[in-house]
Specification:
9 helices, DNA-binding, mainly alpha
Amino acid sequence: MTKMEKRPCNEPEVRKGPWTMEEDLILINYIANHGEGVWNSLARSAGLKRTGKSCRLRWLNYLRPDVRRGNITAEEHLLIIEMHAKWGNRWSKIAKHLSGRTDNEIKNYWRTRIHKHIKQSENFATLPLSNFEEPVFTNQVHSSYVPADNALSQSNDHNIWGMEDFWSMQLLH
DNA sequence: AATTTGTGCAACCGCCACCTG
DNA sequence: GCAGGTGGCGGTTGCACAAAT
């Protein structure tokens, strides 16, 4: 919340924006002890000043132990394209076929990598054939479209706390 | 070195469907 | 049948960081 907003004084304070390490730990600990439940009451019981929706999203997209982030493989890349052709923007449906992947990640991946390149190739299509480059999805392109390792480490770098850290801390309790 | 522009991703928003009383 | 609460989904936004100028 960047601006000061008026809020009725009887309404509980609701935090927005990026999650802090403390909040993550509270949520992880609470779910580890009590399991997932009704998210609104979970948020209240855990003492988090977040909406149930926000907690659910954070858990599903980031904190779940089985969630896999980054490093989309060529195989997954192909599956995404295939399933998107079949179902369109049904991200959650697509995500269910890619274990550990979230709809949010696939949606972002599509928008930032695949869709962008399709747009680009559409632009190429308006050019004379002599200017036309490789079709977007060839074997050759698979490797170039899979995020480079350094790009991944870059994206993981600003997560100072990896999920492994959280879960290893969890095991200590 | 400073500034601008582009990119990737986490998180929010709004809508809809389902459930329960 | 209706209203309120909740979960799930897809679209969009805001921000941090990288790359380009």
